[in-house]
Amino acid sequence: MYQLRLGDQFHGQAARYKILEPMGAGAYGQTYKGEVIELYRKSHELTRGQMVVIKIPTLDKRSVVAALSRLTEIFETHAKESLSMQRLRGVPCAAQVLDHGALLFDLGSGVSLPVLFIVQELIDGDRLDLYMEKMFPSGEGDPMFRGIVESACFFDLARKITGSLLQIHQREVIHGDIWPKNLMVNSKGKIVFIDFGQAWFRDLAYDMVGNKVFTHPYCAPERRMPNQKWHISADIYSLGGVLFYLATGKNPPQPMKDIDAHKNKIASAVKHFNPKLYHENFGVVDVISRCLRYSEHGRTPHAQGVLHDLDTFSSMCEANQTRPLAQDIDELAKALMELEQMRHPLFSDLVRRMMQLLCRQIEDMRQGVFDLTGSHEDIANGLSQYLSVLQAGDHYLTVTLPSFWHPDNLGINGRFLSMNKLIAQRGAVVRRIFLITPEDEHNDAHLKKIIEAHRKVMSELNEVNVQTDEWKLAAGGFYTGFKKVRQSERDFLIREGKHFGLWIKQGHKMMISPVYTENGKIVTIRFRTSPDSADNLEDYFAKLLQQTKRLTQYGQ
């Protein structure tokens, strides 16, 4: 039952309001559409006759002690929302708080208590779930939304949502309750986040412990348990849930600790509910699954990282490859000028160091040399992004080891394998040879899963008519073979530089070779363009290829 009735009037700090109609009710409060009927002072945000959203906490009639406890809880929630909205003032992707005040709530027996209320901007638009049903109906008389079918539309909307969340995080605010009903699409097609009642300041959240247990499927696992710390990564998990909803029309699945099993579960769901999107761009699964990982430390670390993944796997990358480099330079110059106008010496110094590093890297590239170094995330992310430059007619030839695909390296079923699949669909030629030793077959716990992951990619490429059976690929295709060798023979080949990748684009060749630590972890990927070395490797690869068997024959 709603606490306020049609026509009720009350005062805020800046204006007087009239209730027009109820809009919804949740665990913490009720929401009404209201009208500004009188202004108490000049305001740039409020005008007489303006439609607004009025949020009032839920407080049914109960004992005074219970009511006071509930009011304390409500005050904390609304205080967080108000403080968060102060940081988000002027940010167009967050519904603005316009006013606040208090109402007396009659508990009966002559007892009344003050209840806070908040007046917010009324967004002219639809909730995300209603917008999806209207804009992307499944058709054939079915009004339900069952996922965005076209990958370009999926990535476009995913970028808008992620970019808006990035703006919120840049103001050091964590939303804390992201799901389709807390996102709006306004009349101009812009994303607006609403309901910041669970928001926490990012810089304080590391020291906060939430006592509430949340159970809805968009909540991160750490928020489903009491007395657990949570921070920005919880928003990334919820964002992943929203992206899953965009792909399937369904709530995200229950989290699983096994990364590969969880990704396979997400892949199966997307393939089942939205096969066209799945086959058109499998990268959708990688973006979603990295956000929805069980461990907060394993997830994509921030919204900027999600945007990076979206750009890596989307068709936007193709457009970026065809535009002049001068355009990127102009955009960089503009961004540097805007930063300079901030007159913040520390940021200016940081950017100067970044520019110095970039200049050194460019000088190395002029000499045909580039080294990709860093953490597991840096290497997997960087190599996947760089591989995305290969398009129709380009070639990727590689002699590989099972250890290259271990979880601590490029991953058994990670984004790098997905990018291999995607470039083959685009028309690039991918040929891969596994060098497998008896020691691998007896001691490598990951070998079976690695083989299965590559076989799955080949099978799914066959479903979309990409050739995988023969190594003689005239056009786009994905051939994976294997050759069994002795350990001593493989060690010799590695020392001779015969564990490599060779990228060929428009006749230009680049050699890619990994550098391992003693415990088998990749710490560097070397990129080299020496013509003699590249030609020799291409010749060696052609001879070795004829000695391989198809990976589908492994174990037979």
Structural commentary:
This protein has about 550 residues and is of the alpha+beta class. An 8-stranded mixed beta sheet has the order 14-20-19-18-15-16-17-21, sandwiched between helices. Strand 11 and strand 12 form a beta hairpin. Helix 3 runs antiparallel to helix 9 and helix 5 runs antiparallel to helix 8. About 0% of the residues have low confidence.
The CATH homologous superfamily name of the largest domain equals: Transferase(Phosphotransferase) domain 1
Rounded to the nearest angstrom, the radius of gyration is 28 Å
Q: Which stretches are low in confidence, meaning pLDDT under 50 for 5 or more residues running?
A: 200-211
CATH fold-level name of the largest domain: Transferase(Phosphotransferase), domain 1
Mean pLDDT level: 87
Beta fraction of the residues? 15-25%
How many domain regions? 3
Shape: elongated
CATH architecture of the largest domain: Orthogonal Bundle
Helical stretch count?
18
Number of E strands: 21
Given the helix and strand composition, which structural class is it? alpha+beta
Main sheet specs = 8 strands, mixed
Distance between the termini: 68 Å
Q: Report the CATH C-level class of the largest domain.
A: Mainly Alpha
Helix content: 40-55%
Strand order of the largest sheet: 14-20-19-18-15-16-17-21
